[in-house]
Amino acid sequence: MIEPFEDIAPSAQEITEYDKAHIKLYARLLDAEADGAHWQEAVQVLFGLDPAREPERCLKVHTSHLARAHWMTSTGFRHLLRPTQH
Question: Which of 41, 50, 62, 74 is the most buried (most CB within 10 A)?
């Protein structure tokens, strides 16, 4: 089952609830990129979208979420390592 998603991933400088809910999606996007998968294949498999029907939306969804996935690996993970405040 595909997790509900927004067309544009968050751009906040902190990890959001959306990020936490979609961490597996981000990992799968990075895996697809590392495996050389074309963005159209990735968006079809991971988001359940049809790039032939909605090419602009699909590219926007893929680009946005892949950028967030890269942010998570370069910066966002640091937020996960912070102790939580009670």
Answer: 62
Residue recorded with tokens 């969804």: 61
Give the pLDDT confidence score for residue 83 in this predicted structure. Answer: 58
Cα–Cα dist 61/8, whole Å: 6
pTM for the model = 0.86
User: What gap in Å lies between CA 18 and CA 36, rounded to an integer?
Assistant: 26
Distances (CA, A) of 56 to 10, 59, 86: 19, 5, 43
Alpha carbons 49 and 40: distance in angstroms, whole number: 9
pLDDT tens-digit series, residues 20-42? 999 999 999 999 999 999 999 99
Query: CB under 8 Å to 37, separation ≥6 — which residues?
Result: none
